[in-house]
Amino acid sequence: MTGRVRRPVPDQAGPGQESVWDYPRPPRLERTTALLEVVLDGTVVGSTREGWRVLETSHPPTYYLPPAAFLDGALRPTAGASWCEWKGQASYFDLVHGDVVAPRAAWTYEQPSRGFEDLAGALAVMAAAVDECRVDGEVVTPQPGGFYGGWITSALAGPFKGIPGSHGW
């Protein structure tokens, strides 16, 4: 079958795991009380138990923290924007601690699309751009591919969008 991308076979979810293949499309927004932490320059620069996660088929969750979760001065607006078909226009921030800068490591939707209004101003962080991100103390693995912002934990079964050959999923 030329030109068609085969849907991967989902990994078997183990006890206490969620399969990203059970997540919906279009994606769903849900609150989370998990402890979300962002570490830069050896310092926790963002921490909250009042976050959100976006769940989309084949993607690990993308976590969003409220602006108040970040240390003063840790967020610096930067140039550029992108468009998400579900959430709308994103703007970007550098994460900063001391002399360390993680360029365009965080993004937000100031005026998100319908269904994602609760995310207005909340920030997601690209885990690969900082020292580490944690969910309830577990250091996450960044979603593969360098484009998506999902955080992979042991509570997830894949395979995950972003791996080689997943462009058409």
Automatic annotation (TrEMBL):
Query: What ranges does the record give for the region Disordered, renumbered to this chain?
Result: 1-25
Q: Where is the DUF427 domain?
A: 37-127
Instruction: Spell out the Pfam families in the cross-references.
Output: NTP_transf_9 (PF04248)
Q: Which domain of life is it from?
A: Bacteria
Output the Gene3D superfamilies linked to this UniProt entry: Domain of unknown function (DUF427) (2.170.150.40)
Q: Which PANTHER family match?
A: DUF427 DOMAIN-CONTAINING PROTEIN, SLR0655 PROTEIN
Protein name in UniProt: DUF427 domain-containing protein
Q: Which organism is it from?
A: Nocardioides anomalus
